[in-house]
Design goal:
By secondary structure, the protein is α/β, with parallel strands linked by helices. The chain has 13 helices and 16 strands. The chain has helices at residues 38-41, 50-62, 74-86, 100-116, 138-143, 147-150, 169-179, 203-216, 266-270, 291-306, 309-324, 355-361, 383-398; strands spanning 20-22, 25-27, 32-35, 91-97, 125-129, 162-165, 183-188, 192-193, 199-200, 219-223, 245-248, 260-265, 332-338, 341-346, 364-365, 372-375. It is globular, with a radius of gyration of 21 Å. The protein binds pyridoxal-5'-phosphate.
Amino acid sequence: MIWYPYEQMKTMKTPYKIIDANGVYLYTENQKLIDSVSSWWSVIHGYKHPELNQAIISQAEKFSHVMLGGLTHEPVQKLSEKLQEFLPGDLDYSFFSDSGSVAVEVALKMALQYYMNRGEEQRTTILALEHAYHGDTFKTMEAGDDEDYHFVLKAYGPSKYVIHIPTETEALEQVFEKYHDCLNCFIVEPLLQGAGGMRMYDVSFLKRARELCDKYDVLLIFDEVATGFGRTGHRFVADLVLPDILVLGKALTGGYIGHAVTVARKKVFEGFYDSNPQHALMHGPTFMGNALACSVALKSIELFEKGAYMDRIRRIEEITRREMEGFSDERIKEVRIMGGCVCVEVKDAGTLKGYQQYAYERGVFSRPFLKYLYAMVPYVITEDELVKVLHTMKEWFAL
Ligand SMILES: *Cc1c(COP(=O)(O)O)cnc(C)c1O
Protein backbone atom coordinates (compact mmCIF):
# COMPACT_ATOMS: atom_id res chain seq x y z
CA MET A 1 0.00 0.00 0.00
CA ILE A 2 1.24 3.46 -0.84
CA TRP A 3 1.49 5.85 2.10
CA TYR A 4 0.77 9.27 0.54
CA PRO A 5 2.36 12.57 1.64
CA TYR A 6 0.68 15.11 3.90
CA GLU A 7 -2.53 13.10 4.02
CA GLN A 8 -4.72 11.49 6.61
CA MET A 9 -4.87 8.12 4.89
CA LYS A 10 -8.23 7.33 6.45
CA THR A 11 -10.03 10.30 4.91
CA MET A 12 -7.99 11.21 1.85
CA LYS A 13 -9.79 11.20 -1.45
CA THR A 14 -8.51 8.91 -4.19
CA PRO A 15 -5.67 10.59 -6.07
CA TYR A 16 -6.06 11.13 -9.81
CA LYS A 17 -4.18 8.46 -11.70
CA ILE A 18 -1.94 9.86 -14.41
CA ILE A 19 -1.34 7.68 -17.43
CA ASP A 20 0.48 10.13 -19.68
CA ALA A 21 1.84 13.68 -19.64
CA ASN A 22 2.93 16.05 -22.37
CA GLY A 23 3.78 19.77 -22.34
CA VAL A 24 1.68 21.43 -19.64
CA TYR A 25 -0.86 18.58 -19.69
CA LEU A 26 -1.45 15.63 -17.42
CA TYR A 27 -3.71 12.87 -18.72
CA THR A 28 -5.96 10.65 -16.67
CA GLU A 29 -8.05 7.88 -18.22
CA ASN A 30 -10.75 10.37 -19.11
CA GLN A 31 -9.49 13.89 -18.52
CA LYS A 32 -6.81 16.24 -19.83
CA LEU A 33 -5.50 18.63 -17.19
CA ILE A 34 -3.28 21.69 -17.26
CA ASP A 35 -0.80 21.16 -14.42
CA SER A 36 -1.08 24.53 -12.67
CA VAL A 37 1.42 23.54 -9.96
CA SER A 38 4.17 22.12 -12.21
CA SER A 39 4.42 19.00 -10.04
CA TRP A 40 5.41 20.86 -6.89
CA TRP A 41 6.91 23.75 -8.83
CA SER A 42 9.56 21.74 -10.62
CA VAL A 43 8.41 20.92 -14.17
CA ILE A 44 9.31 24.29 -15.69
CA HIS A 45 9.71 23.06 -19.28
CA GLY A 46 6.63 20.86 -19.25
CA TYR A 47 6.39 17.09 -19.52
CA LYS A 48 7.92 14.78 -22.11
CA HIS A 49 10.25 17.45 -23.41
CA PRO A 50 12.10 15.88 -26.36
CA GLU A 51 15.52 17.33 -25.50
CA LEU A 52 15.27 16.52 -21.79
CA ASN A 53 14.11 13.00 -22.61
CA GLN A 54 17.01 12.59 -25.00
CA ALA A 55 19.55 13.81 -22.42
CA ILE A 56 18.46 11.00 -20.10
CA ILE A 57 18.30 8.35 -22.80
CA SER A 58 21.78 9.18 -24.11
CA GLN A 59 23.30 9.07 -20.65
CA ALA A 60 21.47 5.85 -19.69
CA GLU A 61 23.08 4.18 -22.68
CA LYS A 62 26.49 4.91 -21.11
CA PHE A 63 25.73 4.52 -17.39
CA SER A 64 22.95 5.77 -15.13
CA HIS A 65 24.86 6.14 -11.93
CA VAL A 66 28.25 5.81 -10.36
CA MET A 67 29.08 7.02 -6.90
CA LEU A 68 30.98 10.24 -6.42
CA GLY A 69 33.19 8.75 -3.70
CA GLY A 70 36.51 8.21 -5.46
CA LEU A 71 34.90 8.45 -8.91
CA THR A 72 33.83 11.28 -11.15
CA HIS A 73 32.24 11.65 -14.59
CA GLU A 74 31.50 14.08 -17.34
CA PRO A 75 27.84 14.94 -16.54
CA VAL A 76 28.68 16.05 -12.98
CA GLN A 77 31.77 17.92 -14.16
CA LYS A 78 29.87 19.70 -16.89
CA LEU A 79 26.98 20.58 -14.60
CA SER A 80 29.25 22.06 -11.94
CA GLU A 81 31.08 24.08 -14.62
CA LYS A 82 27.74 25.25 -15.98
CA LEU A 83 26.52 26.29 -12.53
CA GLN A 84 29.75 28.16 -11.91
CA GLU A 85 29.18 30.19 -15.05
CA PHE A 86 25.41 30.49 -14.67
CA LEU A 87 25.27 31.55 -11.00
CA PRO A 88 26.27 35.04 -9.83
CA GLY A 89 29.46 36.08 -8.06
CA ASP A 90 31.83 33.47 -6.71
CA LEU A 91 29.11 30.88 -6.03
CA ASP A 92 31.46 28.36 -7.58
CA TYR A 93 31.54 25.26 -5.36
CA SER A 94 28.73 22.76 -5.94
CA PHE A 95 27.87 20.00 -3.47
CA PHE A 96 25.16 17.75 -4.95
CA SER A 97 22.48 15.77 -3.17
CA ASP A 98 19.27 13.97 -3.94
CA SER A 99 16.64 16.35 -2.56
CA GLY A 100 16.04 19.91 -1.48
CA SER A 101 15.75 18.95 2.18
CA VAL A 102 19.11 17.21 2.13
CA ALA A 103 20.70 20.14 0.30
CA VAL A 104 19.41 22.47 3.04
CA GLU A 105 20.78 20.09 5.69
CA VAL A 106 24.14 20.29 3.93
CA ALA A 107 23.98 24.10 3.91
CA LEU A 108 23.22 24.18 7.64
CA LYS A 109 25.97 21.70 8.39
CA MET A 110 28.40 23.72 6.27
CA ALA A 111 27.54 26.89 8.17
CA LEU A 112 28.02 25.24 11.55
CA GLN A 113 31.28 23.57 10.61
CA TYR A 114 32.62 26.69 8.91
CA TYR A 115 32.83 28.27 12.36
CA MET A 116 33.87 25.07 14.15
CA ASN A 117 36.82 24.81 11.79
CA ARG A 118 37.83 28.26 13.02
CA GLY A 119 37.39 27.27 16.66
CA GLU A 120 34.21 29.32 17.11
CA GLU A 121 32.15 26.54 18.61
CA GLN A 122 29.74 28.90 20.34
CA ARG A 123 28.15 29.76 17.00
CA THR A 124 25.43 27.15 17.16
CA THR A 125 22.35 29.26 16.47
CA ILE A 126 20.43 29.48 13.21
CA LEU A 127 18.45 32.61 12.41
CA ALA A 128 15.40 31.93 10.24
CA LEU A 129 12.09 33.50 9.26
CA GLU A 130 8.65 33.04 10.69
CA HIS A 131 6.54 30.86 8.36
CA ALA A 132 9.74 29.44 6.87
CA TYR A 133 9.72 26.11 5.09
CA HIS A 134 13.05 24.44 4.36
CA GLY A 135 12.08 20.77 4.03
CA ASP A 136 10.80 17.86 6.06
CA THR A 137 13.99 16.34 7.51
CA PHE A 138 14.73 17.06 11.16
CA LYS A 139 17.07 20.05 11.08
CA THR A 140 15.14 21.61 8.22
CA MET A 141 11.92 21.22 10.22
CA GLU A 142 13.64 22.92 13.14
CA ALA A 143 14.78 25.81 10.93
CA GLY A 144 11.28 25.91 9.49
CA ASP A 145 8.38 27.56 11.23
CA ASP A 146 5.26 25.87 10.15
CA GLU A 147 2.95 24.31 12.68
CA ASP A 148 0.86 22.70 9.99
CA TYR A 149 3.77 20.69 8.66
CA HIS A 150 5.97 20.26 11.67
CA PHE A 151 3.87 20.05 14.79
CA VAL A 152 5.57 16.73 15.58
CA LEU A 153 8.54 18.81 16.82
CA LYS A 154 6.38 20.03 19.69
CA ALA A 155 7.46 16.83 21.43
CA TYR A 156 10.92 18.37 21.85
CA GLY A 157 9.72 21.75 23.12
CA PRO A 158 11.04 25.03 21.72
CA SER A 159 14.37 24.76 19.93
CA LYS A 160 17.44 26.18 21.66
CA TYR A 161 19.21 26.51 18.35
CA VAL A 162 16.85 28.42 16.09
CA ILE A 163 15.47 31.95 16.34
CA HIS A 164 12.60 33.00 14.08
CA ILE A 165 11.89 36.58 13.08
CA PRO A 166 9.29 38.22 10.82
CA THR A 167 10.38 39.82 7.54
CA GLU A 168 10.76 43.23 9.17
CA THR A 169 13.97 45.21 9.18
CA GLU A 170 13.55 46.30 12.78
CA ALA A 171 13.29 42.72 14.04
CA LEU A 172 16.29 41.82 11.92
CA GLU A 173 18.44 44.58 13.38
CA GLN A 174 17.43 43.78 16.93
CA VAL A 175 18.18 40.08 16.63
CA PHE A 176 21.62 40.70 15.14
CA GLU A 177 22.39 43.23 17.85
CA LYS A 178 21.49 40.76 20.55
CA TYR A 179 22.59 37.37 19.20
CA HIS A 180 25.35 37.95 16.63
CA ASP A 181 27.95 36.15 18.78
CA CYS A 182 26.13 32.84 18.63
CA LEU A 183 24.68 32.96 15.10
CA ASN A 184 26.28 30.89 12.38
CA CYS A 185 23.79 31.65 9.62
CA PHE A 186 20.69 33.43 8.55
CA ILE A 187 18.67 31.17 6.26
CA VAL A 188 15.81 32.53 4.16
CA GLU A 189 13.57 31.67 1.26
CA PRO A 190 14.33 34.96 -0.50
CA LEU A 191 11.41 37.23 -1.61
CA LEU A 192 8.88 34.39 -1.76
CA GLN A 193 8.13 31.99 1.09
CA GLY A 194 6.47 29.06 -0.64
CA ALA A 195 5.05 26.26 1.48
CA GLY A 196 4.58 28.69 4.40
CA GLY A 197 1.83 30.38 2.38
CA MET A 198 3.25 32.07 -0.73
CA ARG A 199 4.25 35.08 1.34
CA MET A 200 6.06 37.83 -0.54
CA TYR A 201 8.37 40.48 0.85
CA ASP A 202 10.65 43.24 -0.30
CA VAL A 203 14.25 42.97 -1.43
CA SER A 204 15.24 45.81 0.92
CA PHE A 205 14.95 43.30 3.78
CA LEU A 206 17.50 41.04 2.09
CA LYS A 207 19.85 43.93 1.36
CA ARG A 208 19.83 44.88 5.03
CA ALA A 209 20.36 41.20 5.95
CA ARG A 210 23.41 41.12 3.68
CA GLU A 211 24.85 44.20 5.41
CA LEU A 212 24.29 42.78 8.87
CA CYS A 213 25.71 39.38 7.93
CA ASP A 214 28.82 41.15 6.64
CA LYS A 215 29.09 43.35 9.69
CA TYR A 216 28.82 40.47 12.17
CA ASP A 217 30.42 37.77 10.03
CA VAL A 218 27.35 35.54 9.81
CA LEU A 219 26.73 33.36 6.74
CA LEU A 220 23.72 34.24 4.63
CA ILE A 221 21.97 31.22 3.11
CA PHE A 222 19.37 31.52 0.37
CA ASP A 223 17.13 28.50 0.10
CA GLU A 224 16.13 28.95 -3.54
CA VAL A 225 14.83 25.40 -3.88
CA ALA A 226 11.47 26.95 -4.83
CA THR A 227 12.44 30.44 -6.04
CA GLY A 228 15.41 29.46 -8.23
CA PHE A 229 15.19 29.41 -12.01
CA GLY A 230 12.94 32.41 -12.47
CA ARG A 231 9.94 31.79 -10.25
CA THR A 232 10.07 35.25 -8.63
CA GLY A 233 10.62 37.03 -11.95
CA HIS A 234 14.39 37.07 -11.31
CA ARG A 235 16.61 34.24 -12.52
CA PHE A 236 17.71 33.82 -8.93
CA VAL A 237 17.14 36.22 -6.08
CA ALA A 238 20.88 35.68 -5.63
CA ASP A 239 21.29 37.91 -8.71
CA LEU A 240 20.00 40.81 -6.59
CA VAL A 241 21.68 40.04 -3.27
CA LEU A 242 24.57 37.59 -3.16
CA PRO A 243 24.27 34.95 -0.41
CA ASP A 244 27.24 32.96 0.95
CA ILE A 245 25.48 29.66 0.32
CA LEU A 246 22.77 29.02 -2.25
CA VAL A 247 20.50 25.97 -2.29
CA LEU A 248 18.79 24.84 -5.50
CA GLY A 249 16.43 21.91 -6.07
CA LYS A 250 12.98 21.37 -7.56
CA ALA A 251 13.42 22.94 -11.04
CA LEU A 252 17.14 22.06 -11.16
CA THR A 253 16.45 18.98 -13.27
CA GLY A 254 13.39 20.47 -14.96
CA GLY A 255 11.41 18.27 -12.58
CA TYR A 256 12.68 15.07 -14.17
CA ILE A 257 14.65 13.47 -11.32
CA GLY A 258 15.05 14.47 -7.69
CA HIS A 259 18.31 16.31 -7.37
CA ALA A 260 19.59 19.38 -5.55
CA VAL A 261 22.75 21.34 -5.00
CA THR A 262 24.29 23.39 -2.21
CA VAL A 263 26.52 26.02 -3.78
CA ALA A 264 29.14 27.79 -1.68
CA ARG A 265 31.13 30.94 -2.26
CA LYS A 266 34.89 30.85 -2.22
CA LYS A 267 35.18 32.08 1.36
CA VAL A 268 33.00 29.20 2.59
CA PHE A 269 34.93 26.62 0.59
CA GLU A 270 38.19 28.02 1.93
CA GLY A 271 36.92 27.56 5.47
CA PHE A 272 37.23 23.81 4.85
CA TYR A 273 40.28 23.76 2.59
CA ASP A 274 43.42 22.98 4.59
CA SER A 275 45.55 20.02 5.61
CA ASN A 276 43.45 18.98 8.62
CA PRO A 277 41.28 15.94 7.68
CA GLN A 278 38.82 16.89 10.40
CA HIS A 279 38.07 20.09 8.53
CA ALA A 280 36.59 18.16 5.60
CA LEU A 281 32.86 18.30 4.96
CA MET A 282 31.64 14.92 6.19
CA HIS A 283 28.65 14.37 4.01
CA GLY A 284 27.94 12.17 0.98
CA PRO A 285 24.49 11.12 -0.17
CA THR A 286 24.61 7.81 -2.04
CA PHE A 287 23.08 9.29 -5.18
CA MET A 288 24.81 12.68 -5.19
CA GLY A 289 25.87 13.70 -8.67
CA ASN A 290 23.71 10.99 -10.26
CA ALA A 291 24.62 10.93 -13.94
CA LEU A 292 21.04 10.95 -15.27
CA ALA A 293 20.10 13.83 -12.97
CA CYS A 294 23.19 15.83 -13.91
CA SER A 295 22.66 15.24 -17.64
CA VAL A 296 19.06 16.38 -17.53
CA ALA A 297 19.89 19.35 -15.24
CA LEU A 298 22.54 20.52 -17.68
CA LYS A 299 20.08 20.32 -20.57
CA SER A 300 17.42 22.07 -18.49
CA ILE A 301 19.75 25.02 -17.85
CA GLU A 302 20.64 25.18 -21.54
CA LEU A 303 16.95 25.32 -22.45
CA PHE A 304 16.43 28.01 -19.83
CA GLU A 305 19.22 30.10 -21.35
CA LYS A 306 18.39 29.74 -25.00
CA GLY A 307 14.60 29.79 -24.64
CA ALA A 308 14.35 33.41 -23.38
CA TYR A 309 12.73 32.10 -20.22
CA MET A 310 12.94 35.36 -18.33
CA ASP A 311 10.78 36.94 -21.06
CA ARG A 312 8.31 34.07 -20.77
CA ILE A 313 8.09 34.59 -17.02
CA ARG A 314 7.56 38.33 -17.47
CA ARG A 315 4.73 37.52 -19.86
CA ILE A 316 3.20 35.10 -17.37
CA GLU A 317 3.32 37.83 -14.72
CA GLU A 318 1.78 40.42 -17.07
CA ILE A 319 -1.09 38.15 -18.09
CA THR A 320 -1.65 37.19 -14.46
CA ARG A 321 -1.80 40.84 -13.35
CA ARG A 322 -4.14 41.70 -16.21
CA GLU A 323 -6.49 38.81 -15.44
CA MET A 324 -6.51 39.25 -11.67
CA GLU A 325 -6.91 43.01 -11.77
CA GLY A 326 -9.95 44.11 -9.79
CA PHE A 327 -10.67 40.54 -8.71
CA SER A 328 -11.98 40.48 -5.17
CA ASP A 329 -14.46 38.71 -2.99
CA GLU A 330 -15.43 39.07 0.64
CA ARG A 331 -14.00 35.61 1.34
CA ILE A 332 -10.58 36.60 0.02
CA LYS A 333 -7.95 38.11 2.28
CA GLU A 334 -5.42 38.98 -0.41
CA VAL A 335 -4.33 38.21 -3.96
CA ARG A 336 -0.54 38.11 -4.34
CA ILE A 337 1.45 37.95 -7.56
CA MET A 338 5.19 37.69 -8.09
CA GLY A 339 6.81 36.47 -11.30
CA GLY A 340 5.42 33.03 -12.09
CA CYS A 341 3.49 32.69 -8.84
CA VAL A 342 -0.05 33.80 -8.01
CA CYS A 343 -1.73 33.14 -4.69
CA VAL A 344 -5.28 33.82 -3.56
CA GLU A 345 -5.31 33.73 0.23
CA VAL A 346 -8.78 33.20 1.65
CA LYS A 347 -9.96 34.03 5.15
CA ASP A 348 -11.28 30.58 5.91
CA ALA A 349 -9.75 27.35 4.58
CA GLY A 350 -13.29 25.96 4.15
CA THR A 351 -13.74 28.31 1.18
CA LEU A 352 -11.39 26.14 -0.87
CA LYS A 353 -13.03 22.85 -0.01
CA GLY A 354 -14.08 21.11 -3.23
CA TYR A 355 -11.95 23.37 -5.44
CA GLN A 356 -9.64 20.60 -6.61
CA GLN A 357 -12.49 18.55 -8.03
CA TYR A 358 -14.14 21.66 -9.49
CA ALA A 359 -10.89 22.50 -11.31
CA TYR A 360 -10.44 18.89 -12.40
CA GLU A 361 -13.80 18.91 -14.09
CA ARG A 362 -12.73 22.05 -15.98
CA GLY A 363 -9.42 20.59 -17.10
CA VAL A 364 -7.06 22.10 -14.52
CA PHE A 365 -5.03 20.28 -11.90
CA SER A 366 -4.71 22.37 -8.75
CA ARG A 367 -3.68 21.57 -5.21
CA PRO A 368 -4.71 24.29 -2.79
CA PHE A 369 -3.41 23.92 0.76
CA LEU A 370 -4.76 25.46 3.96
CA LYS A 371 -5.92 28.99 3.01
CA TYR A 372 -3.91 29.20 -0.17
CA LEU A 373 -5.16 28.73 -3.70
CA TYR A 374 -2.22 29.24 -5.99
CA ALA A 375 -0.73 28.58 -9.39
CA MET A 376 2.91 28.08 -10.32
CA VAL A 377 2.60 27.10 -13.95
CA PRO A 378 5.19 25.55 -16.27
CA TYR A 379 6.95 28.39 -18.13
CA VAL A 380 6.00 26.90 -21.50
CA ILE A 381 2.30 27.57 -20.91
CA THR A 382 0.42 29.48 -23.62
CA GLU A 383 -1.66 32.57 -22.95
CA ASP A 384 -4.94 30.71 -23.47
CA GLU A 385 -3.91 27.95 -21.09
CA LEU A 386 -2.82 30.41 -18.42
CA VAL A 387 -6.05 32.39 -18.79
CA LYS A 388 -7.96 29.15 -18.33
CA VAL A 389 -6.12 28.42 -15.08
CA LEU A 390 -6.82 31.94 -13.77
CA HIS A 391 -10.44 31.98 -14.89
CA THR A 392 -11.04 28.68 -13.17
CA MET A 393 -9.76 30.24 -9.95
CA LYS A 394 -11.94 33.31 -10.37
CA GLU A 395 -15.06 31.42 -11.40
CA TRP A 396 -14.92 29.36 -8.21
CA PHE A 397 -15.69 32.53 -6.29
CA ALA A 398 -18.50 33.48 -8.67
CA LEU A 399 -20.43 30.27 -7.85
C1 LIG B 1 10.39 21.95 -1.51
C2 LIG B 1 11.31 22.76 -0.69
C3 LIG B 1 12.35 22.16 0.05
C4 LIG B 1 12.50 20.66 0.18
O1 LIG B 1 12.83 20.06 -1.02
P1 LIG B 1 12.57 18.47 -1.18
O2 LIG B 1 13.18 18.15 -2.52
O3 LIG B 1 11.09 18.28 -1.13
O4 LIG B 1 13.26 17.80 -0.06
C5 LIG B 1 13.22 22.99 0.74
N1 LIG B 1 13.11 24.32 0.69
C6 LIG B 1 12.13 24.92 0.00
C7 LIG B 1 12.07 26.41 -0.04
C8 LIG B 1 11.20 24.18 -0.72
O5 LIG B 1 10.21 24.78 -1.38
